[in-house]
């Protein structure tokens, strides 16, 4: 015990000396050269801690340790010492409420009758929430990325932080980059590139900013960004009963459907941060599906949607469905005009042009047929005299093209927000369709709407072959008249 008492006296004397004195350095070298293995230091809840939160630093040494010492770099005295009441291989140093003064580098060491241990490795303790200008984190091009592909996470800030830091919730990923001022957006940014994405990259990311003179004091975090990893398994289909062009206030339900028995489905809107999940249901015909209700719709509903399927035992998602555009009308204060050339009543096999025009600026015209199952046609506008216009040409028309048409205008700055619709134009195609060998024809025009299947119902197929091919379309259009049948004559 004499040696222990002497060691403690020397330890106290050591810290009473000037921090930069030669005697201090010699004493540190003497005591911390150590004959014991160096202890392990860690923060129990992670080394990135929110200001005001409690935290505990753990120093793990040997069972015969009699004293544990925690040292913070730059301090002339030990930050804390503990003497275990019973044989214990660790000591815990608790901080009830973290402040910016707690940020910094920590090491610990311990003493037993065999002498002093080496110092532990360095623990970098960071305190967040010190600066209140929040950065913004986005994924380019999307927070849904296929296994093995590359991904870029963009951290943007209006505040001129010297460094921007990217972290992951489990702290398996942490990276810091110098911020760059981007004149085009009048903001600072850092681009974090992740090559060859693995399943470990799925999860929640955040980014922070800090200044070089205070590297252990960070800003409040960005909003969390959830990254989802997909694999190249069979993609589901994304469908809508109400059509893709909707007036504000209308109800909208999107259905994700697959002939693979996925346990859950997710809906993602391009450019959004949300990844909405719903449990799967099963039909008696072997389909799995989930409904996503988005109505009543507004301007914020407009956008491009995709859906994904997954099994409960997997954190990875299927390949995405084909994109589905949802367009909202009445968001531009004008209506284009629609006309037909040569006229609105033609014979089968004739050529027809539908001309959409507007005196107001239009970047893209959209032509929609009432009740059509296929996506609306879109054409870039051309400026002619004082008008913007687009010509939708149809060659060798058939009776399937008969129906009511409208056109709309949009601008590139918000392509999913449309003008009011034009007055309707009725196109009538008369005459019989000639069947040629190996030619695919539609037995009649598509039905006005596409009914969705419900869990438990059974729909018997009526055609030998369908287009497009996903099995859920069998349930959606069971009538023979709505199938694309192939005849060999």
TrEMBL record:
The keyword Cytoplasm does not apply. One of its GO terms (cellular component) is plasma membrane. It comes from Peromyscus maniculatus bairdii (Prairie deer mouse). GO terms for molecular function: inhibitory MHC class I receptor activity. Residues 39-124 form the Ig-like domain. Its main location: membrane. PANTHER family: LEUKOCYTE IMMUNOGLOBULIN-LIKE RECEPTOR SUBFAMILY A MEMBER 5, MHC CLASS I NK CELL RECEPTOR. It holds the Pfam family Ig_2. InterPro entries: Ig-like_dom, Ig-like_dom_sf, Ig-like_fold, Ig-like_Receptors_ImmuneReg, Ig_sub, Ig_sub2, Immunoglobulin_dom. This is Ig-like domain-containing protein. It is found in: Cell membrane.
């Amino acid at each position: 015990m004499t040696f222990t008492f002497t060691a403690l006296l020397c330890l106290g004397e050591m810290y009473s000396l000037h921090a930069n004195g030669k005697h201090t350095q010699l004493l540190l070298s003497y005591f911390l050269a150590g004959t014991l293995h160096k202890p392990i230091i860690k923060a129990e809840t992670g080394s990135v801690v929110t200001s005001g939160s409690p935290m505990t630093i753990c120093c793990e040494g040997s069972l015969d340790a009699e004293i544990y010492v925690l040292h913070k770099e730059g301090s002339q005295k030990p930050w804390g010492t503990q003497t275990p009441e019973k044989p214990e291989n660790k000591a815990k140093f608790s901080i009830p409420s973290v402040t910016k003064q707690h940020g910094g580098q920590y090491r610990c060491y311990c003493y037993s009758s065999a002498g002093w241990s080496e110092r532990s490795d360095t623990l970098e303790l960071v305190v967040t929430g010190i600066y209140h200008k929040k950065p913004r984190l986005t994924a380019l091009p999307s927070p849904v990325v296929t296994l093995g592909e590359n991904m870029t996470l963009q951290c943007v800030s209006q505040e001129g932080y010297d460094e921007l830091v990217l972290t992951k919730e489990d702290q398996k990923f942490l990276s810091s980059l110098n911020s760059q001022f981007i004149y085009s957006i009048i903001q600072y940014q850092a681009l974090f590139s992740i090559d060859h994405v693995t399943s470990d990259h799925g999860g929640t990311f955040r980014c922070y900013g800090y200044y070089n003179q205070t590297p252990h004091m960070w800003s409040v975090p960005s909003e969390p960004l959830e990254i989802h990893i997909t694999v190249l398994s069979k993609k589901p289909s994304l469908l809508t009963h109400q059509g893709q062009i909707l007036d504000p206030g209308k109800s909208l339900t999107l259905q994700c459907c697959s002939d693979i028995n996925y346990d859950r489905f997710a809906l993602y809107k391009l450019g959004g941060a949300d990844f909405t999940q719903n449990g799967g249901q099963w039909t008696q015909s072997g389909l799995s599906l989930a409904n996503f209700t988005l109505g009543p719709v507004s301007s914020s509903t407009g956008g491009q949607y995709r859906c994904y399927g997954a099994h409960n035992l997997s954190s990875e998602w299927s390949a995405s469905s084909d994109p589905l555009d949802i367009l909202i009308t009445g968001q531009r204060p004008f209506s284009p005009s629609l006309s037909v050339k040569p006229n609105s009543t033609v014979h089968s096999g004739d050529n027809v042009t539908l001309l959409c025009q507007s005196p107001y600026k239009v970047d893209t015209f959209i032509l929609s047929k009432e009740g059509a199952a296929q996506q609306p046609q879109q054409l870039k506008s051309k400026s002619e005299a004082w008008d913007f216009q687009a010509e939708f040409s149809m060659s060798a028309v058939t009776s399937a093209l008969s129906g009511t048409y409208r056109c709309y205008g949009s601008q590139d700055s918000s392509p999913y927000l449309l003008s009011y619709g034009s007055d309707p134009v009725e196109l009538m195609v008369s005459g019989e369709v000639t069947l040629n060998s190996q030619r695919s024809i539609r037995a009649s025009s598509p039905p006005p709407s596409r009914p969705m299947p419900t869990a438990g119902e059974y729909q018997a197929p009526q055609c030998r072959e369908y287009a497009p091919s996903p099995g859920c379309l069998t349930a959606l259009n069971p009538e023979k008249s709505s199938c694309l049948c192939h005849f060999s004559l």
